[in-house]
Amino acid sequence: MKIGIDKIGFYAPHMYVDMVKLAEARGDDPLKYTKGIGQDEMAVTPITQDTVTMAANAAHQLIDDKDREQIDYVIFGTETGIDHSKSAAIYVSRLLGLKKQVRAVETKQACYGTTAAIQLAKGYIALNPESKVLILASDIARYGLATPGEVTQGSGAVAILLSQDPRIMTLEKETTFQTEDSMDFWRPIYSDVAFVDGKYSNDRYIDFFADLWGEYKEKTKRDFADFAALCFHLPYTRMGEKALKPHLENVAESVANQLTERYKTSTTYNRLVGNIYTGSLYLSLLSLIENDDNLAAGDRIGMFSYGSGSVGEFFTGILEEGYQDHLNTANHKALLANRKEVTIKEYEAEFLKELPTDGSTVEYSGDNDPADIYLAGITEHMRQYKNK
Ligand code: CAA
Question: Is the pTM of this model over 0.90?
Answer without folding.
Answer: yes
